[in-house]
Specification:
mainly beta; twelve-stranded parallel sheet; globular; about 0% helix; 12 strands
Length: about 110
Amino acid sequence: MMSQTDNGFMCGFLSEGTRFEGSLQFSNKMRIEGDFSGDIESSDQLIIGEKATVEGSIRVGRLVVLGKVSGSVTECSHLQIEEGGQVVGDIRVGVLDIKPGAIFDGKCVMIADT
């Protein structure tokens, strides 16, 4: 799931069993395995793990969803929903990749790559 320009550096990790509410901004790559509620913003990659739940607004460069996202995804250059992943809410993306067994329920607006 790494892009060609991905250096593999993970700047943050919210582990399973952890719940966070608020606003999150980060650089490089972030992975959420716990529960998050609020706003997330970055020009880099966010990975929503298999057991993670995220509620709120997400604005990131690349989003990979293996868990559950409820809310809006805006100005995302690449959204990838893996098997078992769920996105419920409206999205604005440059590239949308929905794998078999994934769920997307909402309105999609395709935008020029951001």
